[in-house]
């Protein structure tokens, strides 16, 4: 037993002296150079088709309806609901450690940094809506200047939304350009993989009956809503997996101060990370999409 302990002590002491000899070490010396905390928002979009919602909600009573006559909103004759263009997206948080490698020839740390840590994404979702409008012109009248049609429009809307949260293990290789004064830029390549959890699907149905006054040869419609009916279903889903490849781009602002060396360690970071995501949900084929996180935060140099 004493011989074994003695042998372990020799090997351990040899390993310490070997790691300290950076000139002859086969592997490059590595140190934790910084810690970064960031938050932000991200925009996403996925190549998604309606049949996938049937697989996510097989017990849905609403999906038993015949939806063959439904269209996208842009194909409707009358557009009653004013929607702005808002990409699918949510919020994100990340904490990462920076690992720096020694450039042996120059005996200084290089500009290449590996950043690894965890990234949390909330409010991940994709959605779709189907519309159907039936129009019946039941009256018309003429004023002194305008001929007006009186229409009755019945509109049915089915909305579909799948939501989840995501926790990724994130690794990226960054190359930082030489700092000029207080400003520096970085670019790299990254990979992330993680767990999809808290998944659920929401299916909604809305019905409107409207009276529409259509002015002939004049822009604009005068609309009166006569009725509204709504039904909503919630369906829980199993956890899934995700992975992504992305290109991180960042800008760093250093609080350089000769009188206060501590502030040299503080950096404001701003970045964007466009990439390709792959999502795998139980019972569905792997889905591909794009995501563009926009982040801001603080980096502390060690």
Please outline the helices and strands.
Layout: H1 2-20, E1 30-46, H2 51-56, E2 88-103, E3 108-142, E4 147-176, E5 183-215, E6 221-236, E7 240-246, E8 249-254, E9 266-272, E10 275-280, E11 287-301
Antiparallel strand pairs: 1-2, 1-11, 2-3, 3-4, 4-5, 5-6, 5-7, 5-8, 7-10, 8-9, 9-11, 10-11
Give a verbal description of the structure.
By secondary structure, the protein is mainly β. The chain has one domain: Porin (Beta Barrel), CATH 2.40.160. Strands 1, 2, 3, 4, 5, 6, 7, 8, 9, 10 and 11 form an eleven-stranded antiparallel sheet that branches.
Any idea what the CATH architecture is?
Beta Barrel
CATH topology: Porin
How many helices? 2
How many domains in all? 1
Shape: elongated
User: So what's the CATH class?
Assistant: Mainly Beta
Q: Helix-strand pattern, N to C?
A: HEHEEEEEEEEEE
Number of DSSP E strands = 11
The helix fraction, in percent, is under 10%
Rounded mean pLDDT is 77
Largest sheet: 11 strands, antiparallel
**Uncertain segments:** 1-24, 74-87
Give a short summary of the structure.
This protein is mainly beta.
Properties at a glance:
302 residues; mainly beta; Porin; eleven-stranded antiparallel sheet; 2 helices; 11 strands; elongated; disordered N terminus
């Amino acid at each position: 037993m004493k011989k074994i302990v003695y042998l372990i002590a020799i090997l351990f002491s040899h390993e310490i002296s070997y790691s300290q000899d950076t000139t002859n070490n086969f592997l490059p010396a590595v140190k934790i150079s910084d810690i970064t905390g960031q938050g932000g928002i991200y925009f996403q979009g996925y190549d998604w088709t309606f049949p996938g919602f049937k697989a996510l909600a097989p017990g849905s009573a609403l999906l038993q309806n015949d939806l063959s006559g439904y269209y996208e909103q842009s194909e409707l004759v009358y557009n009653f609901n004013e929607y702005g263009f808002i990409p699918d997206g949510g919020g994100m948080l990340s904490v990462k450690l920076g690992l720096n490698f020694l450039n042996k020839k120059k005996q200084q740390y290089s500009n290449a940094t590996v950043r690894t840590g965890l990234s949390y994404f909330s409010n991940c979702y994709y959605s779709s809506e189907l519309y159907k409008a039936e129009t019946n012109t039941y009256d018309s009248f003429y004023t002194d200047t305008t001929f007006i049609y009186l229409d009755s429009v019945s509109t049915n809307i089915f909305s579909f939304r799948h939501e989840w949260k995501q926790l990724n293990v994130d690794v990226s290789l960054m190359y930082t350009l030489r700092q000029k004064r207080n400003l520096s830029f970085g670019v790299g390549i990254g990979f992330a993989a993680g767990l999809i959890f808290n998944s659920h699907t929401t299916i909604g149905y809305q019905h409107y009956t409207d009276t529409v006054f259509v002015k002939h040869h004049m822009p604009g419609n005068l609309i009166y809503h006569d009725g509204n009916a709504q039904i909503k279903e919630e369906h829980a889903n199993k956890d899934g997996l995700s992975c992504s490849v992305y290109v991180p781009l960042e800008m760093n602002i250093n609080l350089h101060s000769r009188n206060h060396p501590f502030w040299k360690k503080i950096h404001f970071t701003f970045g964007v990370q466009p990439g390709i995501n792959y999502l795998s949900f139980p019972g569905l084929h792997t889905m591909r999409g794009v995501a563009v996180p926009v982040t801001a935060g603080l980096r502390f140099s060690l």
